[in-house]
Amino acid sequence: MYIVAVDPDTCSGCDACADSCPAHLLKFVDGKTEVVGDETECMGCESCITICPSGAVTITEM
Ligand code: SF4
Ligand code: SF4
């Protein structure tokens, strides 16, 4: 199981990650990206980490 998190202080709001997530866990809200739904549905594919230019996304394997 993986858990995804976005650091709001590091996120620059580029909105690059939302479309990269096959589980639709990342949503652009008020200029920042937030994790929506069940963060434990992250599949650990690392698409969001690869595309994020700010290093704002982390996934943790539980
Ligand atoms: S690792 Fe993959 S499934 Fe998990 S939040 Fe990132 S893009 Fe979505
Ligand atoms: S790709 Fe990174 S900097 Fe851009 S919106 Fe997503 S978390 Fe924020």
TrEMBL record:
Lineage top rank: taxon: Bacteria
Location of the 4Fe-4S ferredoxin-type domain: 2-31, 33-62
PROSITE patterns: 4FE4S_FER_1, 4FE4S_FER_2
InterPro entries: 4Fe4S_Fe-S-bd, 4Fe4S_Fe_S_CS, Fe-S_Ferredoxin
Any one GO molecular function term: metal ion binding
Keywords: 4Fe-4S, Electron transport, Iron, Iron-sulfur, Metal-binding, Repeat, Transport
UniProt protein name: 4Fe-4S ferredoxin-type domain-containing protein
Species name: Desulfitobacterium dichloroeliminans (strain LMG P-21439 / DCA1)
